[in-house]
Amino acid sequence: MMYKIENPYRPIKAEITEVISETPTIKTIRVEPKEPITFETGQFIELTIPGIGEAPFTPSSRPTIKDIMEITIMNVGKVTEKVHELKKGDIVGVRGPFGKGYPINRFKGKEILVVGGGCGFAPIRSLMYEFLDRSGEFKKLFFRGGCKTPQELLYRSEIEDNWAKREDLDIKLTVDKGDSGWKGNVGVVTTILDGVDMDYESGIAIVCGPPVMMKFSTKKLLEMGFKEENIYLSMEKNMSCGIGKCGHCRLGIYYVCKDGPVFSYDKIKNFPNIWD
Amino acid sequence: MQYISSSNFTKFLENLKNDYDVYIPIKKNDQYFYKKYIDFTDDIVISEVRAFEPLKSFFFRAREIVAENFKSDIPQKIQKPYCIVGVKACDLKGLQVQDYVFENHDYQDPFYINVRKNNLIISADCTSTIDTCFCLTLNVKPYPLENFDINLSVVREGFIFEVSSQKGQDLVEKYSFLFEEVKEEFISQRDKQREKVIKAVEENIKENNIPHQDSFKNIIERGYESNIWADEANNCVECGACNTICPTCHCFLLYDQKSENKMARLRIWDSCMIKDFAQVAGGANPRPELWMRLRNRFEKKFDFFPKVADIYACTGCGRCISACPAKIDIRKVLKRLVYDV
Ligand code: SF4
Ligand code: SF4
Ligand code: SF4
Ligand code: FES
Q1: How far, in Å, from the CA of B201 to the mean position of ligand 1?
Q2: Which of A147, A276, B174, B217 has the most CB atoms at less than 10 Å from its CB?
């Protein structure tokens, strides 16, 4: 008798239905999996480019939409380079979802501060959809986002035409270096965390972005009075199998692929070099 | 406990061939390799000491296809389950670690389980040692006490045949005509033999001054910032042999074959000593230096595994010592971590 367990290494076929250029180095691909894939915001998938390989990404679309998934990808590596060459109609593979997403239900009735940086915006957009769709369930929502330059600001029209106009969201953006058209703040993201009008002691902070940005944001949030267990971080490791077998993504006693990628700071703070 | 004569054991193996692909160690230039059993040739050695290759290679293959063209089926490669004869105690512990990883650590791996599930493990007492054997350090006795279906102890003109699973018991019943009662003198022969091998391993341990695992608690944490790592990693050439030869190492790489119109995904043994093992697509690498990767290898075995699975992921088999071209010696690293930090 053979075990009837799904083959966890098999990708599901998916068709690219649209490619959206977000910034000079970032594209969003919209894919239609041939078998439905549901995910929770914060979970990740492995994207296969046939004949090239796989890489992990966190979907940036609404988790409630089952037949279409959007993945925002920065051109940085072997697989991502190929992703940037993809066009409508191409076939890719999707495996997952893997890991544990954000414990949204634990955030009910609370004040929530979302801090995003750089390409860390991608998973955060999915999370923001979830928050905004259910905003009545939370006490108050804050969003603080930063990136290098205004050109690199992801989902700019979404943010300016939609998020910025919402009464139930307090939003502020910053860039490291502005340009003539930029009216927002200039400086790293930690400079716009001060003065967020919420109770830090009981509030939830969610940080997503490059490791340095997460490191300094966490430090700042702790100084402000956020509790370690209320700071949620999305850890980036070299995920491959997604199920805690291949060993590539170990962080202390955890595998980021199955135990994360979202961790509260108290869970990982004692491991050495977590930001490296 | 039964006795089986050598000639009856050959008959037993002959019968097993109907239901299993039987593998057995053969001796070649002082090394032992598993070979498919056809008939009982002179080079077959069931006792003596561990094989060159780690036992994991039967279940977690060095290279195998795990997905093809989006098809959901699990490619089935073996016709019959394996029966592996002459497995030594250290390798049984290695299998325990592999079982934990592929069967029990939250998710199951169908490839491993399919091959592992119906197999038959016929282990054997060690009757000699290699100078790198240090199993006793890790609380592994050089004769199997658990995790086997059948264990053999060589005695005069045959074996003491001990079963420890239902599968083993069923076979004894099915082939009861091949077995005899064990004579007292055989038991004392076995016990003497076991004593002798224990002494030999103890000698190895004494000679190299290897601390017992009871003193391993927190050695990684304590020695985390020490210069032992840089010192020991100095000559490492990043070949990965220490990982691939290790019976407990389980890390792998998913690798897609380059092809325009086909998707074939392989999984191959990987090594955490290789630079890009943990490097992310953007280029950031948590362990850019060799010594960090050496430290990580020890952290995985002596910190991670005891914390998540209550087991040190080392069997004391000594394979990594012989395999390392840079002569990096796990016994010495452990000794330094325990005594010098
Ligand atoms: S390490 Fe121990 S169990 Fe393994 S082969 Fe050597 S003596 Fe036998
Ligand atoms: S670390 Fe070395 S001695 Fe320990 S089990 Fe692995 S190969 Fe054998
Ligand atoms: S076998 Fe030796 S040289 Fe090769 S990677 Fe391991 S420690 Fe380095
Ligand atoms: S991705 Fe393989 S262990 Fe985490």
Answers
A1: 8
A2: A147
